[in-house]
Design goal:
The complex is a heterodimer of chains A (about 625) and B (about 130).
Chain A: H1 8-28, E1 32-36, E2 42-45, H2 49-53, H3 57-60, H4 73-87, E3 91-98, E4 104-114, E5 122-129, H5 131-146, E6 150-155, E7 160-163, H6 166-171, H7 175-181, H8 189-205, E8 208-217, E9 223-231, E10 238-245, H9 247-269, E11 273-278, E12 283-286, H10 288-298, H11 316-329, E13 334-339, E14 348-357, E15 363-372, H12 374-421, H13 430-462, E16 467-471, H14 472-480, E17 492-497, E18 503-507, H15 508-524, E19 532-541, E20 544-551, H16 558-561, H17 582-591, E21 596-602, E22 606-614
Parallel strand pairs in A: 17-19
Antiparallel strand pairs in A: 1-2, 1-5, 3-4, 4-5, 6-7, 6-10, 8-9, 9-10, 11-12, 11-15, 13-14, 14-15, 16-18, 19-20, 20-22, 21-22
Chain B: E1 2-7, H1 11-24, E2 27-33, H2 36-45, E3 52-55, H3 64-74, E4 82-87, H4 92-99, E5 104-109, H5 114-130
Parallel strand pairs in B: 1-2, 1-3, 3-4, 4-5
Helix pairs in contact in B: 1-5, 2-3
Classes of the chains: A alpha+beta (about 625), B alpha/beta (about 130).
């Protein structure tokens, strides 16, 4: 009902003006309006139709509004317009409007039927584009619930306005619980004060914070590491909060740190030397054992970047290492046993090198692993020496058993033959007498052979392998007094010189046997036409003790017998006292301790035997 | 009847061999040498040739092996003579080494017993008289 204070004519004029103002206001606010007839044909359209939806108003006059709808919205609009015509009420509808360029906008329409006096109703429609508004809402909701991060919108008091599903998933609290009692409970109790202060600061400062890491706690007490970002400057009175769970990353990091510290503890505490170099032999990384070894050998502390090879130096040590590095740099694995660098060259190292490669399989350096294996090496050497000695002994025993069978066989087989010739029926016959003489000779030979062998066995027994410090003068004098042939050969001149090496560590029995055999030999084969002169000396050559026994005797034709001189059962003179055993036994005994014996001789002039023994240090 | 050379440094063995060879009744003369060198000296003289040699291995001055080498070089084409090794060694190694010399027809281990010696002498004597 309108109360008029003016004339109806004036009123109509005012109304027309008022209408104009209202319509212009409506248009300015982006609302497009239409007037439809009862068949939904557009009779009138506001001018802003072009700016808002792109249609030129004259071009759509007379067209059904339904046709501008998209898909099924056409029917929905048509039905609504029909019902609006019947009920005359104001109605609302949202539908998709097809633009002239075929894009779609979502519009909200207000529909009102206008009834005039001439009973010719019109439908008025006001369209508002709500696409952007809807989009922003959808956008928020989608990301809010799609994200794996924690989203929350809080008001200034800290009260939860909106929160996403991740909070439930991460902390086990329902959305309702958090909305009711706040989010502070997800912080560990000792972090809550800090969180509160941070929140207060955010409210007043209008600033943002990023990646503020805090230890949080789930409903069941499990620890979660969350990195928080927040801003309070977007919308007045609201705080937007985003939290990212990095618990897994943190745990992996912690495990990595733990395993790295364990690894470095191993690397630092091992006695094995570990280091790496680049392709220019520059030191990359190394452990403390490496520092120790460098300080020990070169007297300085190594640093990363130092060169492990000096290209200007060409010493054996440098060449040794360069060869190994170059092998590994040419993409090969190295495993070798090497001597340590001077002054520790008596130490043995097992060196392993592996090429270091980048993702393209190019060699970019070498990882080096050194282990001191001196003790193991020594043990191995000792074992080798022992098995060598055993093999030597074995051969020795085999030969010895051959000597026994051979030397015993000769007289016993003679005895058997002699027995077969003996004429039992005529004991007194002359032939039997001769046989008996030979019988006696054979028995005597057998006895002598047995005595020799007993002596040989005894010698072996005395090789009790007890090394002791022996004075060479004493050994010589002791042996000289036992030489049996001394009396029968007339004058013998002995010359000794043990001034360079007066003492020697060796088994006593063995050393005496060396002296006895060689002196006895010189006397046995002394030249009958001259005074026998025997010289014995000792000296050192290349860490070996040399003992020489030189005589002016008959000498030996070495061209003929050289290779058999120290062999088994060899005799070279028609002498009744030689059985071909002495030099054989001597050679065997000397070799069993890693020594050697050699001879120089000229027939008619004399012989010189040189015995070379390993020089042992007293312990 | 054959000539026999015994090469051995063992006086008793020499005595035995002389006896055994005489006992066969097929030996006209036995000569002895106490080592390889002495044996070569006898052959070198050229006045006497053995049909059969009994040869020891281990002897001083010149061993049986050295004698065999020298015999093969200097006399194998000149003297028709068979060699029988007579050694105390029973090692297969030495039997094998002896077999490498074509003049060696047998390897006997000591003791030297009459039946064996007789067999060897008869064989040599038969081959000599028949020329086979």
């Amino acid at each position: 009902m309108i109360i008029l204070a003016v004339t109806p004519g004036q009123y109509l004029e005012y109304m027309t003006e008022l209408q104009k103002i209202l319509f212009s206001l409506v248009e300015k606010n982006g609302i497009v309006y239409f007037l439809l007839d009862t068949n939904h044909n557009i009779e009138m359209c506001s001018d802003n139709m072009f700016q808002v939806f792109g249609y030129d108003p004259p071009s759509i006059l007379g067209m059904k509004l339904d046709k501008l709808c998209f898909g099924k919205d056409r029917d929905r609009l048509s039905k609504l317009l029909e019902s609006a015509l019947v009920s005359k009420d104001e109605k609302e509808i949202e539908f998709r409007l097809l633009l002239s360029d075929r894009r779609i906008r979502i519009v909200s329409a207000t529909v009102q039927t206008l009834v005039t006096d001439d009973n010719n109703p019109k439908i008025a429609i006001f369209l508002r584009d709500i696409t952007d508004h809807l989009n922003s809402k959808l956008f928020k909701d989608s990301f809010f619930n799609l994200s794996l991060d924690l989203f929350a919108i809080l008001d200034f008091t800290g009260k939860v306005i909106e929160i996403n599903e991740m909070w439930n998933e991460k902390f086990g609290y329902t959305k309702e619980e958090l909305i009711k009692s706040g989010i502070a409970k997800v912080f560990k109790s000792d972090e809550r004060m800090a969180a509160g202060r941070m929140y207060d600061w955010l409210k007043v400062s209008n600033e943002s914070m990023y990646d503020y890491e805090m230890e949080c706690c789930t409903k069941t007490g499990e620890t979660k590491f969350i990195s928080w970002s927040a801003r309070s400057d977007a919308l007045p009175g609201l705080v937007f909060l985003v939290g990212r769970d990095f618990t897994e990353k943190k745990e992996t990091e912690q495990k990595l740190v733990e395993s790295e510290s364990k690894l470095s503890a191993i690397l630092e505490n091992t006695n094995d030397v570990i280091f790496s170099i680049d392709i220019n032999y520059k030191l990359l990384k190394f452990n403390t054992a490496f520092v120790r070894i460098i300080e020990g050998s070169y007297g300085f502390k190594p640093k990363a970047g130092y060169s492990v090879i000096d290209p200007k130096v060409n010493t054996l040590t440098t060449m040794k290492w360069k060869r190994l590095y170059d092998l590994a740099l040419s993409d090969r694995d190295v495993d070798e046993l090497i001597d340590a660098d001077p002054p520790n060259e008596n130490l043995k190292y097992e060196v392993s090198m592996s090429p270091i490669k980048n993702e393209f399989k190019d060699v970019t350096g070498v990882a080096v692993f050194l282990r001191d294996v001196t003790e193991r090496f020594k043990a191995q050497e000792a074992q080798l020496e022992m098995s060598r000695q055993l093999a030597e002994k074995n051969k020795d025993l085999l030969d010895f058993s051959f000597i026994i069978t051979h030397n015993l066989r000769a007289p016993t087989s003679n005895l058997i033959s002699l027995l077969s010739l003996y004429d039992k029926d005529h004991p007194a016959n002359d032939e039997n007498l001769e046989i008996m003489e030979n019988f006696e000779a054979s028995i005597h030979q057998l006895n002598e052979t047995l005595a020799d062998l007993t002596m040989a066995v005894k010698l072996r027994e005395e090789v009790g392998k007890k090394f002791e410090l022996l004075n060479l003068d004493e050994v010589f004098n002791n042996v000289k007094s036992k030489l049996p042939a001394l009396e029968s050969k007339g004058t013998i001149v002995f010359r000794t010189d043990f001034s360079t090496v007066p003492e020697l560590i060796y088994p006593k029995g063995d050393l005496e046997s060396i002296f006895y055999t060689l002196l006895d030999n010189s006397i046995k084969f002394a030249h009958p036409g001259r005074e026998c002169v025997i010289s014995v000396t000792s000296f050192i050559v290349e860490n070996r003790v040399h003992l020489t026994f030189e005589d002016n005797g008959m000498g030996i034709d070495l061209e003929r017998y050289g290779d058999r001189l120290f062999g088994l059962y060899q005799r070279f003179h028609r002498s009744d006292s030689g059985k071909g055993l002495g030099l054989y036994f001597l050679n065997t005994a000397i070799k069993s301790f890693g020594g050697s014996i050699s001879v120089e001789s000229e027939p008619g002039k004399g012989s010189k035997f040189t015995v070379k023994l390993i020089k042992r240090e007293s312990e | 009847m054959i000539n026999v050379l015994v090469v051995d440094d063992d006086a008793t063995l020499i005595f035995l061999m002389k006896r055994l060879l005489q006992k066969t009744g097929r030996v006209s003369e036995v000569r002895v040498a106490s080592d390889g060198k002495e044996a070569l000296d006898i052959l070198f003289g050229g006045t006497w040739e053995p049909d059969l040699i009994f040869l020891d291995i281990n002897m001083p001055v010149m061993s049986g092996w050295d004698f065999l080498d020298e015999f093969g070089r200097s006399y194998a084409n000149k003297i028709e003579c068979e060699i029988v090794m007579l050694s105390s060694s029973t090692r297969e190694m030495e039997k094998a080494q002896a077999a490498k010399h074509p003049e060696v027809i047998r390897y006997l281990s000591k003791p030297a017993l009459y039946p064996t010696i007789l067999e060897v002498v008869i064989n040599t004597d038969t081959r000599k008289s028949t020329g086979l």
